[in-house]
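In this section we walk through a basic example: taking a raw amino acid sequence and producing a predicted 3D structure, encoded as discrete structure tokens. The instruction is simple. Fold the sequence below.
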Amino acid sequence: MKENNIKNKSFTFAVHIVKLYQYLSEEKREFILSKQLLRSGTSVGAMVREAEHGQSKADFIHKFSIAQKEINETIYWLELLYETGYIDESQFESLNNDAVELIKIITTIIKNTKKNLTSNN
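The resulting token sequence is shown next.
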């Protein structure tokens, strides 16, 4: 259940990140920070998809751990873009709230999978 939820949420988040990247590069003419945001923000969903077909529980955890790092990096880029005036408060709040929700879900999935892995041994 959570994996499908995270799969859908991470994909929708990636779409919003791509649209923000388009806005930043076309309207604001900002290319460096926005490219970093694009890479980390879209990587989250890619890692979730890779985890879906992990070779083992350890591989599944590893892929989700990478997704966790990527969403945390994305939050950094969003904060930086906001503090430097490239995005306004409503843009920041919307995406940051989604990112925080994703990191909470991802962290829960990792913790529960690790707990289930140790309790089965």
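Looking at the output, two observations stand out. The helical segments are 2-26, 32-52, 57-83, 89-119. The two ends are 24 Å apart (CA to CA). In the next section we compare this with other chains.
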